[in-house]
């Protein structure tokens, strides 16, 4: 289950093909189980994918106001569109803004030899 939420997809759940994401690029995902909702996103950097829970550590809001748009225009950072906090796409660490030293919550994903991104 992971992350203490029954709506978190099981390990091995296919999310998308890595090639379906721009490089750099991002995509959001949502799952619901009963009254539980899990919102997360994946960021592509080259041949790697990084997953995070879609929740700003500063205010608890979703990061993207525009669907699937989690990155700055230049693709160098994850942007909280509500408060302009910036996060490192590879680590989730805060680079600046009101989140201070708080990082994004990692969500384990992996790119398989078949090029598919899966929940890990």
Task: Tell me what you see in this structure.
This protein is mainly beta and 120 residues long. It has a single domain, classed as Rieske Iron-sulfur Protein, CATH 2.102.10. It contains no helices and ten strands. It has strands at residues 14-17, 25-33, 36-45, 48-53, 78-79, 86-87, 94-96, 106-107, 109-111, 116-119. The strands form three sheets. A four-stranded antiparallel sheet has the order 2-3-4-8, with no helix packed on it. Strands 1-10-9 form a three-stranded antiparallel sheet, with no helix packed on it. A hairpin with a 2-residue loop joins β3 and β4. The protein starts with 13 loop residues before the first strand and ends with a strand.
Evaluate the radius of gyration: 13 Å
Runs in which pLDDT lies below 50 for 5 or more consecutive residues are none
Top CATH class: Mainly Beta
Number of strands: 10
- Count helical runs: 0
Distance between the termini: 11 Å
Percentage of β-strand residues: 35-45%
The name of the CATH architecture is 3-layer Sandwich
Largest sheet: 4 strands, antiparallel
- Placed side by side, the strands forming the largest sheet appear as 2-3-4-8
Given helix and strand content, the structural type is mainly beta
